[in-house]
Every structure is written in structure tokens, then in C-alpha cells.
Write the C-alpha cells for this entry.
Amino acid sequence: MTRNAPSTEDKIKEAARKLFVEKGFGSATTRDIAECAETNVALVNYYFRSKENLFQAVFQESFAQTFVPIAGILNDDLPLEVKIYKFVDQITDLLKRAPMLPIFILSEMRGEHAPMCQAMQQAGAMQPADGFRKQLEEEAAKGHIRPVDARQVEANLMALVLFPFLGMNILKMKHQMSDEDFSKFVDERKKVVPETILAYLRSGLV
Amino acid sequence: MTRNAPSTEDKIKEAARKLFVEKGFGSATTRDIAECAETNVALVNYYFRSKENLFQAVFQESFAQTFVPIAGILNDDLPLEVKIYKFVDQITDLLKRAPMLPIFILSEMRGEHAPMCQAMQQAGAMQPADGFRKQLEEEAAKGHIRPVDARQVEANLMALVLFPFLGMNILKMKHQMSDEDFSKFVDERKKVVPETILAYLRSGLV
DNA sequence: CTTATTTTTAATCATTTGCTTAATGTTTGA
DNA sequence: TCAAACATTAAGCAAATGATTAAAAATAAG
């Protein structure tokens, strides 16, 4: 019982994902993609009408795969400390499976594709983590943590989790890391990052 | 007394910097660059021999401008707390003047240009922050902070300072920020980030 | 001034790139 | 079974792109 052979359309989309993520929109050609998908250029346009169209399809899936889970976990109904550990743990594991997605998304969200941002905002793909904000306010009211700007805390969390993947190449080189070393490094951050966030939230309490 | 008219070569390099940073290597064409520099394509190749060559020149300058100061400040001879505040303050101001540099550098350091990493490593453009590591060890020995992995602390610092610029577009959209709002946001981080780092370093002390 | 060198221009070449077309093969459903 | 819809292929087009050339213009040197 062999796995279902993927449809041509799916093979093209997967090839496109690989190449767009690896080289960026401008440097990946339709012929690259066709070859990588083991078909020809005509089929790429037959299924997706244009390179731009294909890119949109790939980008939106990638975006949903990366940034939607992030807001999701933050709005979960969990105790603050548990939530933060869960967030770091799950996002880290997600990114270990697709380490280039963040840099792909952020880098394509410039220049001619910058307007996509707005489009996706309106599509509701990016709801603010309102539950998280309220939770921080409640915990502060109870005196469990100090009063904070939720946007700053959220940015800190995202920064600490995403950055090692965004700067993976530089990081690996700077510290002469093998793939395995890097994997260990981000695993260690499953402790470091929550401790950092919680230390900030709890610092300066009377 | 008007400022020296920039040479054609410099006008081309500046135009290239603007367009490479804005659109990436693959999406910026030599004709774009020539037009933006108010010359013609032949001159681009006359001064730089090839698009790839021009890119290398621009990239290396941008890299030096961004990542060398970072390691520099960390190795300065300053008390830990002062150093951290200075680091965040200076790098933030630097990035406010060139907010797209980080995403440019990280995004171009993939695909066909990934080998540049190694080349720049060997050129010594990326010395590890050894002074910072020793300082952290000494402070830990004195009991002023807890024992830490310097690489993790350094990564945290870089992450917290760089990330808002890397994710500028998403951030501005998610929180409906104007340019001014964003500027305020990163200025507030001049307090938030050092407090976060220091809270971590001082947490769990007996 | 004259010659040599450097800089600039316009025209052009060879490829590449996104996309289309027309013909052929394959599947599906009535 | 047969036609209608779908899938695939090879060939090619027009525009864009990186690079070059040869000649003209500007600048520097003797």
C-alpha cells in the first residue's frame, strides 16, 4: 500500500514552495519550478494561471502555517506560565520542521508584495492576541506580575522564538554549529526563553 | 557651499543599495538600478563588471554597517548593565536610520548567496563576542548574575533588538501602527529590552 | 595644443523568462 | 461507445534582462 501519488497540481505547488522559500520570488523561475516538479512550464500556467498566482497560493499557506498557530496558542485558555512554556515548545518544534518559513514570509513582505500585508489583515489572518492582553492585565491586577505593555511582551516572545531561525545561517557560522548543534541550541531555548519572559514579568514586584 | 556631487560610481552603488534592499537581488534589475542612478546600464557594468559584483559590494558594506557594530559594543570595556543599555540604545538608533538592512542581510544569505556567509566568516567580519562571554562568566563568579550560556544571552539581545525591524511590516499592520507609532514602539524597547535581559540574568539568585 | 586616458552614450546581442498556442493523449460520464 | 472535459506535450512568441561593443565626449597629461 504505497502512499497516494500526489497530483500534478500538488507536485507543482510543493516544488514552488521549496524554491520560493529557498531563493525568493524574484530568483525562482517558472522553469525551475516545473523542472523541480518533474513537469513542464505549460502545466504550471495551466494550473495556476501565472507565477504571481502560484506565489500567492504558496505564500498564504505558508503564512497560515506559521503565524496563525502563534496567535492561536497565545489566546488559549491556560495559566500564564503554562501557556508561555507551551508556546515556546510548540512553535520551536514547528519551526524545526520548516526553519526557512519565517525568513521567507518576512522577506517577501517587502517591495512589490508589501500590499499583501494589508490584504491578509483584512482576510482576518492576523487577529491581535487579545486574550493574551487581557490575561496579562488580570495577572497584573492580582499582583502576580508587574503591569506591562502586552504588545511588547508579545513582541519579545516572538522575537526570542523566531530569531534563531531567522538568523540561522549567521548563527551557525558565527558559533561554528553543525545542524545538530543548532538543534540542541534551539532546544535549550525551550528553557531559556520562558525563563527570560517570566523573569521580566516578575521583576520589580514589591 | 553645496555638497560634493557624488561620482557616478557612487550614485550607482547607492541606487543599487536602495533597490537590492527594497526588492532583493532577484527582483532588482540592472536597468532599475541604472535608471534610479540616472545613468544607463552600460555604466553599471563599466564600473562593477556584473550585477553579482555590484551586489557583493553593496552587501558587504551593508553587513559591516549592521553586524560589525553589534559585536563591537558587546566587547567594549564597560560595566555589564551600562553596556546592555548602551547596546540596545545604539543599535536601535542605527536601525531606525536603516530599518530594512537586517531583513535584507538575512534574506539574501540564503540560496545561491548562502556561501557568502563562509566567505565573510573567513574575512573576519564576524568575530565572536568573546569579551562579552568572559564578562558574563566573571559576573557570575562574583555572584552578581546567575551562570548563563553567553551564546543564548547574546542571541536574546540580538533577537529583542532586531526583531521589531525584521517584522516591521507585520507588526505595524497587526497593531495598526503609523510610522510614528512604530518609532515610539521601538523607543520604548530601549527600556523593555535591557530590563528583560537583566531580569533574566538576575533571576534565581540565592 | 595634442595625445592618451577615462567616462559616457546608444545600439545591439544572446539568453532567459513568463506565458500562450495548437496539437495530442487521457479520463469520465451519459 | 462516444463525445465532452481534462491533462499533457512540444514549440514558440514577445518582452525583459545581463552583458558587450564601438564610437563619441570629456578629462588629464605632456
About this structure: Chain B touches chain A through 55 residues (CB under 8 Å). Chain B has a mean pLDDT of 93.
